[in-house]
Write a structure and sequence with these properties.
4-stranded antiparallel β-sheet; alpha+beta; 16 strands; 12-stranded mixed β-sheet; about 350 residues
Amino acid sequence: MLDRTVHVRPAADDDAARWSAYVDRHPRASVYHRWAWRGLLSSAFGHRPHYMIAERDEQLVGILPLVQVRSLLFGHSLSSLPFCPYAGPIADDTAAAAALDQGAQALAEELRVDHLEYRSLGETSEVSRDWPVQDLYVTFRKKLSADHEANLAAIPRKQRAMVRKGIKAGLSADAGDLDTFFELFADNVHRHGTPAHSRRYFALLLEAFGDDAGILIVRDPQGSGVLSLYYRDEVLPMHAGDTVRARDLAANDFKYWSLMQRAIDRGCTVFDYGRSKRGTGQFDFKKNWGFEPTPLVYEYRLVRGKGIPQHNPLNPKYRLMIETWRRLPRWLVNAAGPQIVRGLG
């Protein structure tokens, strides 16, 4: 008689091909479940990966990408997945999902983390968990037409006028280089008072995803840029930056319209605008494009921690820190930022 028990074990380097094949065939898998994140997060931030696989009858029936984050400022966590908006466990059935949960909780206890965190798109899951939930974040997803004019017409009137403003200003957009993008990104996050990723992180990301990643830069002036990932039929603008002058020319609206056009020409049918916090300007900007928010469900199994972590700029206790950061010189924040941001996830 076959043993129908689900067995959970750590994924090893030689599981890469099986993991990737599973992600490619699972309907709820995302670009953030891809194996490339395992090495990327380790190389860029020094975080230890704990990827887990569930097997039944020697067949892979579930995966859970986990990464351990240690920080003096922000605590000790086991997350699926830091710096990714959603990468929670996926499985073939309830038994496989439950086995992954048990394995992850045992690991969290063994590592003595503050909390175990799952980040998932929407509320779909193979199992129901009685864990504390944070609903601060959403993403904005929308189906695209193959017709560029139909997509332009679908943008609400006021935002469509901003796209046309960029067109009339003579803006253009094309594939960009990392140095130009990084300057735009670093300038943007500095104005917002938050630490920036290192240039090295973006270089590693582009290398890890190859043709499934790309940079788009708005020219005349070179004032806005976006780094996007592509997976299946989706385009996912993940990191962006701009200058103040570019905003006056509606370069951000033009940027995303240009990305949408290029994604359609590439064969994409879904535009995922990326993660935003409720009650922020980013949230309003994306909603004004006619996109409806899709909840990101963040579940927490508290181990040593006493509550859900609130490591985000909306937390009042970071207000003074944010204002101070904005006033620091760029050379200093570019040097110190990556050491701080690595613990945020």
